[in-house]
Amino acid sequence: MSRATSGQRGDLDVLEEVWSELPTSFKRELEQRLLRRINERCKRQINAGDYDATVALQDLYGDFVDSIADDNRFTDAVPRKVGEDHASRLVFQRLIDELEERNTILYVYDRQRVRSRVAEVTRYFALLRQRFVGEDYEFTPSLTKMVKMDIQSREKPKWGEDGKRINSIVRDIYQDVRTSDPAAELADAFDTTGDWQDAVEEALTLVRELCHELGMTGLAKYQGRAFQRLYLQSVTDDNDGTARVITASTGGGKTEAFLFPLLTYALTAAQANLNGARALLAYPRTDLCDNQFERIVHYLYTISDLIEADDSTPFNELPFTVNLQHSSSDDVEIDCPECGGRMSAEDDFECSEDSDHVVDYVSTGNQSQADIFITTPDTLHRRLMDPYGQNQFWKRGHPPKFVVLDEVHVYTDQYGMHVANLMRRLKATMSAVADEQDPVLVASSATISNAEDFTKRIFEASDAEQIKPYSKEDLEEMDDSRSEDLEPELEEIGWEYLVFVKSTEPRTVQIPQGDDVFKPRSEWEEFDETNVTNLSTMIQVAFAFYHTILKERPEDDDAKDKILGFVDSIDSVKRLGDYIQDAEGTDDNDDAGLYSLRKPDAFLPDTEQTNPDCPKELFRGSAASHETAVCEPLPPNPELNPCPVYEAGECWWTLQDDFLESMDVYLHKSGRTETPDGTGVNDDAWDMMVTTSALEVGFDHPSIIGTFQYRAPMNIPGFVQRKGRGGRDPGDQPISVVVLGTFPEDSFYFHHEELLSNPSDEYLKISLDEENEFVRTQHIVSAIFDYINVQHQDVSDEIYRRLEMPELINILETDREEIVAWLDGAFSSSDLDFLEGVLDDLTDYIHLTEMALAPHEQLEESGGFEKFWEALRIESGTKSKQIEREKEQLQKLLTQFEMLEGLDAAGGDTE
Q1: Rounded-to-integer distance, Cα 819 and Cα 424, Å
Q2: pLDDT: is 609 or 794 the higher one?
Q3: Which stretches make up the Helicase ATP-binding domain (predicted)?
């Protein structure tokens, strides 16, 4: 029942009084509810084919009243002398006006209807044409067949006060340690149980202080579970070989879930003076390696500061180091953890802004020993066999304790087979070096549903456990009493938009020229022809996307104004980037790019008038809320202020304000960022970055607010990762646009768009054929060289670097039983006859290298030829010496070839 009306008090006074009493969080909540309803109603209309979607304020108000009817946060804020009905109308209108002022919605028609900004942009995509400077838009070809829109909730784990306090996590871990026995390597290192427990306590205390320093007084509950399980598994004898897989949403803190226990173990092992590595972290992309390397460096910098500031710690300085290894690690650059300048491996990580800022606990390349190694599976594959890995791992007393595979959803198909067999080789080598030390095996991913089964198989572990934040559905499925005391650990933080654009069929289109524009098509004599392709749609969508979506460039906070685009071909990166940059550029008359042909010139009288089709004469001179407007302040509509250009989709109403300039396009491929003209860059001046799967994971730029995907993605988990690159902050509402072509797979995904926007677990399963015979054969051969690298360290360098084949043959023959046992330990699921057969084939092949390069009786009488392996070997020394040696070998081969030609001319046998 309503209270009395406000009487003589003005509406503004009433609104101000009510508004000031409403909790800020509640006003934000109400605003987001309204925006979500507007978007949902626009979505239904768009997906039904009505691209001029609108929502009546009257309908929204009815929903609004229902939502606050029994909410004390609203009723308590309304004074007794003010009617609730009247107050609700005023608050509703204030919320709508604020949404409109921030450009998240638009008033349409007579200000009694609204449309969301995303729905407006989707309308532009639906009406998109291929434009050319100087051409009449009425004759240019349409590029879009259909569009669809979807909205999906975004969730993140609860942390902070809603998580578990770090003090409580540390206390629980230490209580378990007090009743446990140490791991074997720690038991040998410490004289007494008390010494071991003291080391554990000091390590835990330091990492707790690290969390406090980083503002992480409370971790997510799943992070706490991971910390406890992984650290206890590493320092106690309670390690049954179970692998752990950490799964949480993109940006949900998976890295900290395994990194904090890893760092704590490294601190513990440092106090034990263990000679060896602490951890090996493998990432599927070099860019992701670099990203995680920088993150770890910043954590280590904070730990180093804490040690320096506290004399009570057992360390005088940071007790461990980190090394980055991959094909281009020597070119890496990171932000200075002290001042934000730049540090590069080339300059030994000396800050570009202050030479006193140097991090001396990091290294790159394959020459340095370290405690924590960050690498790729391909680099690790080489380190198992070569002398660099021998020096870094196997000549030291203890191999890495932690083995981490991040983003394991990438390890599918042949790459997955490769990594699975690589893990078997790694475990076999680690066991041979220190069979008493059990490794801690960790995987992580945001997009995998068969997590435990996959993790168990890729590591060949005895068992696997998934650690994740519990959802409401997870708790309902639990069949034990534990669920009664648990609460859901995920919270909704907003939503994300997805727009699916279906291209028209590729075709050739005629565009009339001159006076033929006024004639029927059958009478055209002068015309140009243009080809319409799937790529044409992507190009136009790309710059429509950037210029029309809602972007922010606040003075204090991070901007939200960058777009990351994905294609699945390196060639397409270059081609698409070139075309977009060309469309954004200038022509011979210094006119702006093609986007400017869609500017609402009548609405922007103070800007350069570039839209040749804008019918300025149709619009009235001013409007109350837009003093400089020369047309109505609302988007044109057929009933009140008709505009044929807007109705045709050739006036982009939201192309306004600070985003009227051309965007800068960068390309990222093969680990290199460059401009479309091929110039390498290392800055942040891009507006749109076109890339491949290289930036699919680990590229966490805070300014990315939109992503696009050209053509059907290679797989669904990969697409989920790609759209997760946008909107890293909780308050963001990112947009992902998928431009689908005319191929069968594109059509499939357009008609089943839910597979991309909200895939079920069935489509997030990662397949793995770890016993594939062809891939396994390659790794069996590699494992033989792993054996030599560990068991014959005195000669393995000569064999690997200088092709010392007689020594290799001797080892293959004399150590045959030991090698077979090694292979059987690494590949226990393979048949023993198969393993021996590969060894026999390799031995036979190596024997062939003993043959002369070109055996011939007549030539043997004059001195003979080198053995094949001798001709290929490279002398040790500098690169220049190696080059000279190769030149000599080449000249020797040419001389031998000339001798053979002479024999042939004399009638000799040159077979």
Answers
A1: 15
A2: 794
A3: 235-466
Q: Per DSSP, what are the bridge partners of residue 113?
A: 56, 108
756 lies in which domain range? Answer: 492-599+652-764
Q: Which two tokens stand for residue 234?
A: 């590493």
Q: Are 286 and 265 part of one and the same domain?
A: yes
Is the Cβ–Cβ distance between 114 and 106 less than 8 Å? yes
**What's the CATH code of the domain at 439?**
3.40.50.300
AA identity, residue 50: D
Tell me how far apart the alpha carbons of residues 46 and 122 are, in angstroms, rounded to a whole number: 8
Q: How far is CA 430 from CA 323, 677, 754, in A?
A: 19, 47, 44
Contacts (Cβ under 8 Å, ≥6 apart) of 169: 219, 224, 227, 228
Domain boundary among 77, 98, 115: 115
Sign of torsion over alpha carbons 394, 395, 401, 404 = negative
Report the number of distinct structural domains present in the chain. 4
User: 3-state DSSP helix/strand/coil percent for the chain, to nearest 5?
Assistant: 45, 15, 35
pLDDT value at position 120? 96
Check residue 481 and give its pLDDT: 59
In a domain, 307, yes or no: yes
* Contact present, 689 and 564 (Cβ < 8 Å): yes
pLDDT at 626 over 60: no
Give the DSSP H/E element, type plus range, for residue 672: strand 672-674
Q: How far, in whole angstroms, is CA 697 from its chain's centroid? A: 2
Give the per-residue pLDDT at 4.
Answer: 40
Contact 539, 664 (CB under 8 A): no
**CA 603, 606, 610, 613 torsion: positive or negative?**
positive
196 contacts: CB under 8 Å, gap ≥ 6? 182, 186, 187, 190
Q: Which residues neighbour 517 within 8 Å (Cβ) at sequence distance 6 or greater?
A: 136, 139
The pLDDT of residue 420 is above 60: yes
Which are the contacts of 733, defined by CB distance < 8 A and separation ≥ 6?
Answer: 494, 495, 496, 497, 727
Q: Is 308 part of any domain?
A: yes
Q: Is 323 within 8 Å of 364 (Cβ atoms)?
A: yes
Q: Minimum mean pLDDT among 84-93, 273-282, 509-518, 536-545: which range?
A: 509-518
pTM higher than 0.85 for the full model? yes
740, pLDDT greater than 50: yes
Sheet holding 105-108, edge to edge: 55-56, 113-116, 105-108
Residue 610: pLDDT band (50, 70, 90) is confident
Higher-confidence residue of 137 and 744: namely 744
First to last CA, the chain: 108
Closest CA to 267 of 231, 221, 224: 231
Residue 2: pLDDT band with limits 50, 70, 90: very low
- Tell me, yes or no, whether 458 and 584 share the same domain: no
**Amino acid sitting at position 447:** T
Tokens found for residue 808: 């290799």
The more confidently predicted of residues 361 and 873 is 361
The whole-number pLDDT of residue 574 equals: 93
What is residue 556's predicted lDDT score, i.e. its pLDDT?
A: 62
533: closest CA among 499, 566, 503? 503
pLDDT at residue 82, as a whole number: 77
Return mean pLDDT, the chain. 88
Pair 569, 534 in one domain? yes
Residue 628 covered by a domain: no
Of the candidates 115, 110, 119, 87, the one whose C-alpha atom is nearest the C-alpha of residue 100 is 115
Contact between 741 and 503 under an 8 Å Cβ cutoff? The reply is yes
Q: Residue 435: name the closest of 822, 819, 839 by CA.
A: 822
Residue 480 above 70 pLDDT?
no
Given a cut of 70, whether residue 879 has pLDDT beyond it is: no
Residue pointed to by tokens 């988007």:
635
377-397 as b/e, with b when 16 or more CB fall inside 10 Å? bbbbbebbbbbbbbbbbbebe
Last residue of a domain, one of 488, 508, 525: 488
For residue 30, give both structure tokens: 């109400």
